[in-house]
C-alpha cells in the first residue's frame, strides 16, 4: 500500500488542476477574450482645448540704459589756483551753489585798475568838452585857428572813447572776478571732484572739475529694431491692433534683479534716424525717480505697449511641436473625431501660450494632452481640459486581473 501513495497524490493534483481550469472563473474569461476582435484598433482618449478668440494687450520688452535728465560738466572759466572745494561729493546741490573758489586776488586787482583808469578818463572829460565849446565861439571871431578847434574836437572824441574802453575793461574784470566763484548751473547730484585744494586750473580745460546730473525725472533709452517697427506699423494698418490714446504711451520698467519699477514712464518720442550699424532706432522714455532708485547707466528692460488685439488666438505651448524642418505644427481633432495635422505661424509667446498669426480658427479643438499616442487620421475620444478620465470599458483588463490570475 505504501508503494501506491505517490501515484494517488499525482492523480489527485492533476484532477484538481483540470477542475480549476474548467471551473466558473476560467470559463468566464475565455468567452470575453474571444469577444473583442484581435486586429481592431483601440480608441485613444485625448484632452483637447477649443480655440476661443481673446482680447489681449500686446507689449514688447526692450533692453535699454538709463540716462540723466540733465548733465552739466563743471569747468573753470578763468585761470587760477583752487582755494577751496565747497561741496560734499555725492551730495545734492542747487543751481547757484558755489562749488569751488579760485584765488580772486589778481582779478580783483585787474578790476581796480580798470575802474581807476575809467575814473581818470571821466575826470578829464569836462575840461576837454569845455575847451571845445570855447574854441567854437572864438572860431567865429577868428580868435583861434581852425586847426586848434579841430585838435580840441579830436581830444574830446578820444576822451569819450577812452571812457567807453575802460568801462568795457572794468566790466570784463568784474566778470572774470565773478568766475572765480565756480557755481552749479543746474540742480542735481554732484559726483566726485577731480581736483583738490591748491590745484592749478585753466579756463575751459578738457577735464571737468566735477559733474552734476539731474536724476528726477530720468530718461530710459531703448533701441527698437526697424523690423519690429515695420511689423508694428503693418499690424496697425491691417486693423489687427488698436491703440488706446494716452494710455498707449505708458511704459513699465523691469530692473536688473527682475523686480518691477514702481512708477510708470511716458514714451517721449522715437528717434527719426536709424543707426546703420545696429539697424535700430532709439525710443526715449521719461520716468519719475523720486526715490533715486534709477541711476545713470543702469541696464533695464522697458515693457512698451504696442496695442490691443481684440481677436487674438492663443494656443498652449505644450500643444505645439516642430516638424522635421523645424516648422511649428499642432494636432487638432477634426470631423468624425479624427486627428489632423495643422501647420502654424507663431507671433510671440505670451506667458505659457503662443500667440498665433495664422493656422487656427475659432472653434478648432487642439490636442493638449495625449499627442504622443496619436497620429494624423486616427480616431480619438475627446475630453475637456481638467475633466476626470473616463472609466475603463466593460470587459477591459483591470489592474487586479493579473494578480487574480
Condensed summary:
The chain has helices at residues 5-21, 24-35, 105-140, 146-179, 226-238, 401-404, and strands spanning 44-50, 54-74, 80-85, 92-93, 98-102, 181-183, 188-190, 200-201, 210-225, 250-254, 265-270, 280-287, 299-312, 314-316, 320-322, 328-333, 339-343, 345-350, 353-358, 365-369, 380-383. It is built from six helices and 21 strands.
What does the secondary structure layout of this molecule look like, with pairings?
Layout: H1 5-21, H2 24-35, E1 44-50, E2 54-74, E3 80-85, E4 92-93, E5 98-102, H3 105-140, H4 146-179, E6 181-183, E7 188-190, E8 200-201, E9 210-225, H5 226-238, E10 250-254, E11 265-270, E12 280-287, E13 299-312, E14 314-316, E15 320-322, E16 328-333, E17 339-343, E18 345-350, E19 353-358, E20 365-369, E21 380-383, H6 401-404
Helix pairs in contact: 3-4
Amino acid at each position: 500500500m505504501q508503494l501506491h501513495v505517490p501515484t494517488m497524490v499525482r492523480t489527485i493534483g492533476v484532477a484538481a488542476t483540470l477542475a480549476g481550469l474548467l471551473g466558473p472563473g476560467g470559463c468566464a474569461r475565455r468567452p470575453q477574450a474571444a469577444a473583442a476582435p484581435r486586429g481592431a484598433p483601440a480608441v485613444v482618449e485625448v484632452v483637447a482645448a477649443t480655440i476661443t478668440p481673446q482680447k489681449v494687450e500686446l507689449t514688447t520688452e526692450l533692453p535699454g540704459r538709463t540716462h540723466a535728465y540733465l548733465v552739466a560738466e563743471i569747468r573753470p572759466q578763468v585761470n587760477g589756483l583752487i582755494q577751496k572745494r565747497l561741496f560734499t561729493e555725492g551730495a545734492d546741490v542747487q543751481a547757484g551753489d558755489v562749488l569751488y573758489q579760485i584765488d580772486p586776488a589778481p582779478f580783483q586787482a585787474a578790476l581796480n585798475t580798470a575802474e581807476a583808469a575809467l575814473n581818470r578818463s571821466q575826470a578829464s572829460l569836462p575840461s576837454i568838452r569845455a575847451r571845445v565849446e570855447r574854441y567854437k565861439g572864438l572860431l567865429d571871431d577868428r580868435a583861434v585857428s581852425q586847426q586848434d578847434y579841430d585838435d580840441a574836437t579830436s581830444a574830446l572824441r578820444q576822451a569819450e572813447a577812452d571812457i567807453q574802453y575802460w568801462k568795457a575793461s572794468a566790466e570784463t574784470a568784474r566778470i572774470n572776478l565773478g568766475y572765480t566763484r565756480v557755481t552749479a548751473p543746474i540742480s542735481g547730484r554732484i559726483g566726485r571732484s577731480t581736483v583738490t585744494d591748491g590745484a592749478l586750473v585753466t579756463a575751459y580745460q578738457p577735464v571737468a572739475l566735477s559733474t552734476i546730473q539731474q536724476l528726477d525725472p530720468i530718461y530710459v533709452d531703448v533701441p527698437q529694431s526697424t523690423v519690429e517697427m515695420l511689423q508694428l506699423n503693418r499690424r496697425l494698418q491691417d486693423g489687427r491692433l488698436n491703440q488706446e490714446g494716452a494710455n498707449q504711451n505708458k511704459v513699465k520698467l523691469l530692473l536688473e534683479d527682475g523686480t518691477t519699477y514702481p512708477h510708470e514712464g511716458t514714451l517721449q518720442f522715437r528717434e527719426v534716424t536709424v543707426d546703420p550699424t545696429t539697424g535700430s532706432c532709439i525710443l526715449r522714455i521719461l520716468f519719475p525717480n523720486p526715490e533715486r532708485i534709477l541711476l545713470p547707466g543702469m541696464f533695464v528692460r522697458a515693457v512698451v505697449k504696442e496695442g490691443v488685439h481684440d481677436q487674438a488666438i492663443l494656443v498652449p505651448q505644450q500643444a505645439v511641436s516642430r516638424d522635421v524642418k523645424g516648422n511649428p505644427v499642432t494636432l487638432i481633432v477634426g470631423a468624425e473625431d479624427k486627428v489632423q495635422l495643422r501647420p502654424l505661424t507663431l507671433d510671440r509667446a505670451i506667458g505659457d501660450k503662443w500667440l498665433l498669426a495664422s493656422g487656427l480658427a475659432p472653434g478648432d479643438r487642439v490636442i493638449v494632452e495625449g499627442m504622443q499616442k496619436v497620429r494624423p487620421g486616427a480616431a480619438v475620444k475627446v475630453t475637456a481640459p481638467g475633466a476626470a478620465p473616463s472609466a475603463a470599458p466593460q470587459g477591459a483588463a483591470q489592474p487586479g486581473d493579473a494578480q487574480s490570475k
